[in-house]
# Entry
Amino acid sequence: MGAALPEAQEIHSFCRICTAMCGITVTVEGDRVLKVRGDDAHPLSQGYTCPKGRALPDWHHHPHRLDRPQMDGQAVDWDRCLDDLASRLAAIIDESGPDAVAMYLASGSAYDANGRRAAERFLGAIGSRQKYTATTIDTPMRPLVAELMGGWSGLTPMWDQEAARLLLLVGTNPVVSHGHGNGIADPIRRLRNQQERGPVWVIDPRRTETARLADRHLDPRPSTDYLILGWLVRELLIDGADWAYLREHAVGIDDLTAAVAPFTLDRTADGTGLEAAELLDLLAAVRTAGRLSVLSGTGVSMSRHANVTEWLLWALAVVTGSYDQPGGMWFNPGYLMQLDTRDWQPSDGHPEPGPASRPELPRRFGEYPCAALVDEIEAGNVRALVVVGGNPLIAFPDRDRTQAALASLDVLAVADVVETDTTELATHLLPVAGQLERADVPWMLDAYQPAIATQFTPAVVPPGADRRLMWQAFAELGHRLGVGVLPRGIDPETATDEDLLALIAERGRSDAATVLAARRGLVGEARPVHGWVLDRVLPDHRWRLAPKPLVEQLADLDHPEPLVLLPRRQMRTMNGQLRDLGNVGPEVLIHPDHGIADGQLVQVTSAHGDLVGTARTSDEIATGAVSIPHGWANPNVCTLTTAEFDIDPLTGMVWQSGLPVQLSPAESA
Ligand SMILES: Nc1nc2c(c(=O)[nH]1)N[C@H]1C(S)=C(S)[C@@H](COP(=O)(O)OP(=O)(O)OC[C@H]3O[C@@H](n4cnc5c(=O)[nH]c(N)nc54)[C@H](O)[C@@H]3O)O[C@H]1N2
Ligand SMILES: Nc1nc2c(c(=O)[nH]1)N[C@H]1C(S)=C(S)[C@@H](COP(=O)(O)OP(=O)(O)OC[C@H]3O[C@@H](n4cnc5c(=O)[nH]c(N)nc54)[C@H](O)[C@@H]3O)O[C@H]1N2
Ligand code: SF4
Ligand SMILES: [Mo]
# Structure
């Protein structure tokens, strides 16, 4: 035998697939990642992991991992790839200006603190305004409503897991998703804990994994939640509102009262298809609880009524005195972000115009809506696109147009860890270090945690093959273009991940050395804190209860459609990620009454396009709904959605939930 075999080692890290960011213990042997299990000593996840986290070893050693840079599909070395990319970008900027270079930053970069910052700084440094993120195909209604009602788009209300006496979930399925906005590790345990204090109510047209363990489940017609929420607000304003809180912390009460006046019980029961008795039970539960925690998800954010529904959901929280008060919802100021120490200038929520080809699609929060990107490419305004941890071909509407537009670009540079639908089209492929190959702190998602806490992970294994840290790739690209990407004083030749992370950590609640030693989590304040949003963020300490653009949208809502598409996340995949590790494909979930048999091929048609998939029939879904997960190449639900019409005028959001579809049996795919 030759050299001694390396010994197996256990390294504490945290999973960077979803916002729950569970503590994990990774078994490695040399550069082989053997196993991932939950870390029992982790203060927030307490040993929990889901199948995605446990699949990290298979993902790390994925047969289609990206090992070497490529140009037009040919392996090249980094210098060649970056030289060529830089000179092509320079020529485009010279000829067409910096706005001809766009960037799409998505899920895969949200958990690479250094890489994400470097990519964003690169875009800013070349002077481009063409920034797109997954927020505008996911949940732009929340920052919109936060800005219109609270003066700042970043407010994320958190479930009070210590004290809420009622948890209301509207169009979210945390048992599978682990939260939308709130990072919820070990969701079943946390929901059970909640039930010891007070009931969990779920509103969802599907009897979801979460609905099955809830105390009560209401299954309204899709996209009619606004009626339920508006009716609750109306009734509470008559009896049950927290008037002391409202007098001190709200403006626009009369306008809100007028806006919800038409929401009678009859109209709500009629519009939602729910029994009056069920609705009255919910109202009684809210009155009994006094304050509540109420969370929404993609069932709200992707619907045509997203903004209005989210507004009425926030209004419900304000009217019950729930926001920023114990037993209601709190706002996590973040361990690293320390939002509670900043000075706030309240915003009135006025957007800037969209890009030249779609000026009607508003620019908000410093970004353009994804719905505009394909038009910008087709119009020749965008000639180069840099994709940073995203997969537009499974995420954007108009699947075929998106494909043609990406293929027509002069430059499509993609920074990813595995081959995807989008990497196949790349002119420049940047194989960046995956999550186990880099040190990290949860920078962007600091304020989505159930405690004021942070954590640090070292690289579990060094970057394998010819992969580079993403921040290095952008620093080198910037250097070639003569723009600075790294903070001052950082030498790209000698700096480490930790040097850069220290600059983030030192702005947190303890010094950088303490944060970088927090290998299994560091909890600053385990319990919710209250008051900083009321004191520091809200304009004049008051919620604006009736923002005009939302009141106007409410006046203009239409009737529900007979059969509609609903989104659904799957337990073992994350959007388009992990699907090729032997996971179940995207079944078309329908009620048995459509005359289509379980396992039969079914065609689903929208006003825009169609797909053929395998039907799964179940009475867990209402007859008026068809549930199809996104993230798959075939069938790809993005063939049904479009950015051409029915785009939300306030956010530019694509209609991805509740859009009308038709079903018919299909012979073959
Ligand atoms: N019709 C329809 N469309 C939808 C949705 C829907 O429900 N229905 N959902 C929408 C939602 S909510 C979202 S968030 C978007 C998702 O849209 P995307 O975020 O674009 O989709 P993902 O498949 O998550 O892409 C993440 C990519 O990051 C890569 N990645 C993983 N780790 C790393 C890393 O460490 N570094 C880098 N650089 N890359 C990495 C992965 O390999 C993957 O290719 O889709 C949206 N589109
Ligand atoms: N396992 C796993 N986890 C994930 C992801 C994943 O792909 N896989 N993706 C991550 C991402 S990017 C996101 S954005 C989050 C999303 O997190 P969630 O929003 O919690 O997840 P979804 O499964 O999309 O849940 C949406 C629910 O809304 C319901 N719904 C649809 N229309 C309506 C309606 O009109 N009214 C009501 N009340 N309900 C409706 C659907 O039936 C569905 O159960 O999950 C994240 N976590
Ligand atoms: S819930 Fe799963 S994917 Fe999300 S952080 Fe935990 S182990 Fe990772
Ligand atoms: Mo998302």
Notes: The first helix runs from residue 51 to 54. The chain has four domains: 8-60, 70-129+383-440+456-521, 141-331, 564-668. The CA atoms of residues 344 and 537 lie 6 Å apart.
